[in-house]
Structure formats: structure tokens, C-alpha cells
Amino acid sequence: MKASIATTSVPISLGDRSYSILIGENLISTPSTWLGLSKAACALIVTNETIAPLYASKLKSALEPLYERVMVLSLPDGEGYKTFETLNLIFDQLLGSGADRKTVLFALGGGVIGDMTGFAAACYMRGVPFVQVATTLLAQVDSSVGGKTAINHPMGKNMIGAFYQPELVVCDLDTIQTLPQRELSAGLAEIIKYGPIADMDFLDWIEEHLDALIAKEPQALAYAVQRSCEIKAAVVGADEREGGVRATLNFGHTFGHAIEAGLGFGVWLHGEAVGCGMVMAAHLSHQLGLVELSFVQRLTRLVVRAGLPVQGPKLGAPEYLEHMRVDKKAQNGQIRFVLIDKPGHAVVMGAQDSLVTSVIEQCCL
Ligand code: NAD
Ligand code: GLY
pLDDT digit string (tens) for 120-178? Predict the structure, then answer.
């Protein structure tokens, strides 16, 4: 008989926007999961065509005792659909069904559904409550937490969006069992990220338990999700709107977003681009004399073991630089990178184009 895992609750402290991240097994079907949400007549579950057949009716049944009407909207699946046109389908559904300004939106899915549904919630009638029901590892350890919501623009990743916090985040570990291995690896990238920027003990733990995580062992998943959420909750609690330390959560993302935009959204998974981007950012940190080569090699080994690429696509340094100049961290056209200045600590700083170019040439196939 499998040992059951105790549900944990990680608080995220943001004054009147505080909420909990629930982590455990079978949470979708457990009535107590849904206690304490805003009262409303109507709820809309936003999901996609892959996740709907797996979990939408389970969530709908759990919510039916709480709302007079529970609607389900299934969107097309993929990063390529994280667009204004798809976002508008959510507004079409809400307006077409007469949903009022108390309607609660439930984002049932990974980061794409979570980011889009959160942005729809921020905008619909100037703001309605929403809940993140995160079904990918990446969403459970990162995207569902902290209130960043967005859609992509053809000229840049996540460029149109809002900070808008959910009322609750639910990480039902059972949902990870149906996640394809490639998507699991993408989530591992965002877990690994927390080590170099914040907690080297956690990096040691990840190295020790990586095989268990890849095998989707519930105990290992539970700890990885909990520790990731604790680190993210502390950072977001200190800097909700990214005036400072929150930018360190973007370790690997400056190079990563350039890979995603350069290849076209959806060719590499976000987590794959972040995995490779972390290796590139570690090399840049080393080139600047901030960390030893042995640290770069250690991180590279772990990223490889997680099943993630460590060589970027050969887009050419000018194209990388062009995409990185529209990164949200850029100031006045000057690219700013999240770099590791000692293992377990990150800084945000610029670097000379010539140095960045040499890293791109070294790290891209
Ligand atoms: P995703 O949402 O595209 O989901 C990955 C794939 O897995 C999809 O095909 C999805 O349909 C499928 N899927 C989801 N749950 C499943 C399940 N339980 N079983 C089987 N299949 C399932 O990708 P993602 O990696 O979750 O999220 C990536 C997105 O998150 C990017 O758009 C990125 O920009 C965003 N992001 C946002 C933040 C933030 O702070 N808001 C942080 C990191 C990433
Ligand atoms: N994923 C980066 C952040 O939430 O700030």
C-alpha cells in the first residue's frame, strides 16, 4: 500500500493579497481544498484540450456544491496559443454567458493556462478572483505562484500582462503522474534554479533525489514542490512587483527567452530554454570572475541529468542580443543578466556585448 503524503500549506504573505499554496495528493477531489474562496454564483474553469479530458470533470464535480453554475472552457494547447486571440476566447465565454464581476476563474493547467487565465481575471470587469490549479511540475514550483500573469506578443515573451495574485494555489501531486517526461524535465529546470540563486542545500538535495523526481516518486515531488514554493514565497513576499530581488528568479531566463523567441514560441519548451539559459548564465558568471569553473561544471552536469539541453540553438550572437534587448530586465537598451556571484546567491547586472558574444559562441551548437 502506498504511503500517503500529508498535505502542506505554504503561506505567501502579501498583506490583504496573502494566500496559501496547498501541496498534497488528491487535492482536487477533497472538499476542504475549496473552503474559504470568494462567494459567487458562477465559476469558470479555464483549461485546454489536453487537460480537460483528464481533470476537468473532476474539478467541476468538486466545485458544483459551491456555485450555481460551473462552466468549462477548453482552449487550444500550446505556448503558440498564449496570445491575445486566445485570451479573447475567455472574455467571449464570460460575456456570452453573462458572468458577473464576482465570477471566480479557475486556471486548470500548466503555466500557459495559468498565465492567460490570471491575466483574464485581472482584466475582466477590472478584476475578478481566480484560483490556480497547477497541473505541471513547472506550474507547481513556479508559474502558479506569485501573481505574474501574461500573454506573449510576437515581438517578445510575456510582454503584455499584469501582476495579479490568485486567491489560492492548489498543487495536486497526482496530476504529475500523467505529465509527459519531457514536460517533467522542463519543470526540473525551474526547481534546479532555486539552488544557485538561493539555497545550495536544496541543490545538494536535488542532486541526491533527481532519479526519484524523474521517476515521479510522490515523496520526492512533495518536498521539491514545497521547498521551491517556500523559496519563491519568501522572494515574492519581499518584492512582489520585481523592484529588486524578485528578478533573481529569472536566472537563465534572459538567454532562455531569446532561445524561445528566436526559434518561435513552442519549439523549445520554456523549461528547456531556462535549463540551457542557466548554463549560459553560469558561463557568463565565470567569465566575469564571479564563480569557479567547477560550479559551472556542476550545474551543467545536473541540467544534463535532468534531461535538458545545455547547448543553445545556433541563432547567431546578433540575434540573441537583439532578443535580449527587449527582455523586461533591460534598461535603456542595456541587457541585464541574473548572474551567480557566489553559489546560493544571485545578482542582476550588465555585461559587455563582446563577453556575452563569446559565451553564446561557446554554448551554442
Ligand atoms: P504548459 O502550460 O504548456 O504545459 C505543458 C504541456 O503539458 C501542455 O501540453 C499541457 O497541455 C500539458 N499538461 C499540463 N498538465 C498536464 C498533466 N497533468 N498531464 C498531462 N499533460 C499535461 O507549460 P508549462 O511548462 O506548465 O508552463 C510554461 C509557461 O509558464 C510559459 O508560458 C512560461 O512563460 C510560463 N511561466 C510563467 C511564470 C510566472 O511566474 N507566471 C513562471 C515560469 C513560467
Ligand atoms: N518566474 C519568475 C517570477 O515569478 O518572478
Answer: 999 999 999 999 999 999 999 999 999 999 999 888 889 999 999 999 999 999 999 99
Helix, strand, coil percent content, the chain, rounded in steps of 5: 50, 20, 30
The CATH architecture of the domain made up of 8-178 is 3-Layer(aba) Sandwich (3.40)
Ligand 1 within 6 A of 82 CB?
Answer: yes
Q: Are strands 69-75 and 130-134 parallel, antiparallel or unpaired?
A: unpaired
Q: Do the first three CATH levels of 8-178 and 181-363 match, i.e. the same topology? A: no
Task: Parse the chain into domains and list their residue ranges.
Answer: 8-178, 181-363
Strands 19-24 vs 168-172: parallel, antiparallel or unpaired: parallel
pLDDT for residue 328: 83
Q: What are phi and psi of 69, to 5 degrees?
A: -135, 125
Nearest atom, ligand 2, residue 190 CA:
1
With CA atoms as reference, report the closest residue to 259 among 248, 275, 247. Answer: 275
Are β-strands 8-12 and 19-24 bridged in parallel, bridged antiparallel, or unpaired?
antiparallel
DSSP code for 20: E
The pTM is what? 0.97
**Atom 2 of ligand 2: nearest residue by CA position:** 249
* DSSP β-bridge partners for residue 9: 22
Q: Is the pLDDT of residue 208 over 80?
A: yes
Sign of CA dihedral 229, 230, 233, 234: negative
Residue 98 has pLDDT above 90, yes or no: yes
DSSP summary character for residue 243: S
Instruction: Give the residue whose CA is nearest to atom 20 of ligand 1.
Output: 179
What is the rounded CA–CA span in Å between residue 119 and residue 148?
8
The answer to whether 39 touches 63, Cβ cutoff 8 Å, is: no
Place of cell 525551474: 190
Tell me what pLDDT residue 156 has: 81
| Ligand 2 binding pocket includes 283 (Cβ within 6 Å) | no
Q: Which CATH class is domain 181-363?
A: mainly alpha
Count the Cβ atoms, other than its own, within 10 Å of residue 99.
Answer: 23
CB 254 near ligand 2, within 6 Å: no
pLDDT score for 2: 63
